[in-house]
Amino acid sequence: MKFEHPAGLNPIDRLTVVGRPVDRIDGPLKTTGTALYAHERHDVAPNQAYGVVVGAAIARGRVETIDVRAARAAPGVLAVVTTLDVPRLGRGRMNYAYLFGGAEIQHYHQAIAVVVAETFEQARAAAALIRADYTPEQGRFDLAAEAGHAPLHGDGDEPVHRVGDFETAFAAAPVTLDRTYTTPDQSHVMIEPHATVAVWDGDRLTLWTSNQMIAWSKKAVADILGMPAEKVRVVSPYVGGGFGGKLFVRADAVLAALGAKAAGRPVRVALTRPLVINNTTHRPATIQRIRIGAERDGRITAIAHESTSGNLPDGSPETAVAQTKLLYAGAARMIAMRLARLDLPEGNAMRAPGEAPGMMALEIAIDEMAEALGLDPVEFRIRNDTQVDPAHPGRPFSYRDLVGCLRLGAERFGWSARDPKPASVRDGRWLIGLGVAAGFRNNLLTKSSARVELDRHGVVTVSTDMTDIGTGSYTIIAQTAAEMLGVGLEKVVVRLGDSDFPASAGSGGQWGANNATAGVYAACVRLRDAVARKLGLNATDIDFADGEVMSGDRRVPLGEAAGEGLSAEDGIEYGSLAKDYQQSTFAGHFVEVAVDAHTGETRLRRMLAVCSAGRILNPKSARSQVIGAMTMGAGAALMEKLSVDTRRGFFVNHDLAGYEVPVHADIPHQEVIFLDEADPISSPMKAKGVGELGLCGVGAAIANAIYNATGVRVRDYPITLDTYLDRLPRPA
Amino acid sequence: MYDFTYHKAASLDDAAKLLASAVDAKPIAGGQSLLPMMKFRLASPSDLVDLGTIAGLDRIEAEGGTLTLGAMCRHGAVCTSEVVQKTLPALAHLAGLIGDPAVRHRGTLGGSLANNDPTADYPAAAVSLGATIVTSKREIAAEDFFTGLFETALEPDEIVVAARFPVPEKAAYEKFRNPASRYAMVGVFVAKFPDVVRVAVTGAGASGVFRVPSFEEALSKDFSADALKGLSISTDGLAGDIHASAEYRAHLVGVMARRAVAAANG
Amino acid sequence: MNVTLTVNGETRSAEVPPETTLLVFLREYLNLTGAKTGCDIGDCGACTVILDGKAVNACLMLAAQADGRDVITIEGLATREGLHPLQKVFEETGALQCGFCGPGVILSAKALLDENPAPSKQEIRNALAGNLCRCTGYVKMIDGIQEVAETMRSVPTPALPAASKGEQKHG
Predict the structure, then answer these.
(1) Is residue A718 reached through a cis peptide bond, with omega within 30 degrees of 0 on the bond before it?
(2) CATH second-level architecture of B5-50?
């Protein structure tokens, strides 16, 4: 199905199942511990052996020799494969680090060997016996040191995106801001580490793995191992969190495959937590300079956002400037990115790549600007709202109610009670402050397919390679099929995460919900046609409800209509609506913090997000997504940072005792409000994404609240207490 | 891990014999620190001697101004013990701040003392209260027991059996936790006896627990938080790492000490 | 070496190498994979099980240390009559997303409620301090656990499997 015109009325608009806060259909499996994740697929093959990955101990250079004698001789060892045993393997299309093969070391903890043994402990013990000799080379690990000479890196044809004459407008502006902000390297910290069971059947390979993007990964496995994609099957029905860290095939999958081949047995590999951090991907650090010029009435006349990040050769930048093209009005604009070459592990997507760190900086700048103008920060944002793409005023937003988010949020949060003068509210030893930030994340469209089958019992089975990484895909897909075919959820079976199923959008970029359900919608439309044909009815005047097909006075139970069974496959593809309209999602984030006047410790007190994100397919799972994202935003603001050893070139705090993420005690009252809306330009579902929107802006709202509480403006994340203790107001 | 030999000790004597007989044997109590170290190969004992099977090592007794805790007392048992809560509530409070519930249900007093992690909590209590560490061979004053970073006066085949804590007039423990690991970024234990005040700090010292004579002197004259006003400690010998600088830790020592004194005064 | 323990009310036994952790014992030898391997060093709590009535990290115990003890895993929580109220409430409140931390969180909560049937929000947060979650943001879990505590207090339900509070031994 090609989606070329804004959606009209369709069966989804009945909202008998879609739009309802139903429980997730995979819930019972998860609460009873019976949902099977990759590392526990005892069921898929007998006689599984265990692989343990060995990571390089240098960050750049060559591995000269690898002594595996002791490891091979260790108890239980079945096979050892080293990177010197194979030429450098290919890599996935969107990856910059090579995962295995050859002598060159690109980054610390790059995989150099896998040890396969009868038990996990035997494999781990033998892996510790591997001795590698290296010739290290000097690497570049310090973004700040490289930033000064990092070359421009455009995201389109032009290296610098310009609208009007920024420099002149900025120079002429009566009120200006020119500040630099930094965000650190961050780790996804999904609780399930990357894991794979690899099984060879002749020249066919099946990987039971933990992965967000099945179709990408099938292709990547084929490219990496140099085999035809038809011979690869990737299966990932349950994923213990991803956040972008499992968009790609990683060393666990590649080395499980190589280890299985060498051992002649199925092999199971999970990355250890340190390898998750230094062997896989991370969100790259940024240094962002923001300049804003405004008239005294608060209208922005000039805005510039420049960001520098680093990556391996061939890598891409963290696109932290993305939102600044679109979020606020302003005639003169300049956007640029610089990319430094760094020899750290691969920088790549983490939840809301670009906007997450970009909004952390931009929305502090906006708060600073509002203060300079003497305007309330909510009012300043509203005053600079735009309903069109500022670079192309003929290109409107498909739907945008940022103003509604801010106004409703301010009302619900009690914003009017905020004292704009910093450090003026005390509660015992606590300094109290309120902060606000806008939330913004683009809505991305990508094709997505599904197969829908109807059996003689009226059971509808949906199959698509879409994944559910905790997002609720199983449930919203079931809701979509139930709505389209007029059955209850109990009549719908959803099968996900298998490359034998039609290729979907996959889970990433908060595009999964809208696109994958739109693909299921398309397949259901086709199935409705098939049912109509079978019954000799006209597809345009039949209805599906209560488990029956209805046309005029005729009612046929769906199972009966199916006969021996019907099957339909289709997908959604998009025309030019994404070009004709800017499609984005919006939020207002409000935060109250308390800062200990003696230690600088920040405690969150309340958080509220008001979201404008099209139709909400399932308010319960959408709320969960946003609340979880707000929590991740709290981590980004207050604690999360991969510390770089700039001499040896690796992330030092590579476990969960060193890399801090929010815990129960950090998270207070959180609330989410979804504005009641539908965006007919996004898809027949009229939905958009929320999972990343909930993160974008949260960090800045917290930073702004800390400023309001203390009068200390921190522009470097995370805002840890020791960075501003000396600037705190003296306790009474 | 790797293939080691596991022994269940039937008695203290048995455990001591087993420890003496193997090349590189180690006792295991709760294992909350030892097992991760073995997984990382920071420790690789040839033999593990399990003390968990020895009866009677988890006694909690208060008698004649002394609280005696067996080495196998779990942190969870110490923090919920009515005896401890009544006689030395600061110690119950301290035990409840160790790790998380799962760690407290396994980790032991003896294991914590013997490991002498520079960020562990019990060493601060032991030094501040002037505890006596009772081992399978002798009795050692707490200040002589902790000898440096992860170092104690214990001999290889010597086992911590119990710790005797003199009950003070007043005491309190205030801890600023590393939010990820819950180890002490800084923990200050303050104890007031009729003749002496001791202030012991954990988490901050690069080589483990230490006392703060200047604070003790001030508090001996006037046991109030105000008595510490204006006093600070030098950053010499303090730990600085990715979690906090030495300067920040020095600042926290002052804040936590004042809070501890305030808490001790109720 | 032989390790024999009671798991979810049944005696289970296996010959294992001494370095086998309780977590590996459960997952690999008994195929009880509800307890997850998230970090393997006691940081994340995904491997939480209940040992003699107390929540512990199964990755930080040798199977040998659990010899002769009583273990409850997530697989032992539901009864013939249905799911445990905590399992139900985690579904209803949306307290689980990817589900990987869920079994550990639910067991920590069960261990808490068995000891303290009326916990405050803060007590619940403290009890779950060792259970990391990266998806849900925690508040729904806290709300759900409090809801269960209230229901369990108001409706004395015999369907609840009694907490296994075997005699506390040393280990």
Answers:
(1) yes
(2) 2-Layer Sandwich (3.30)
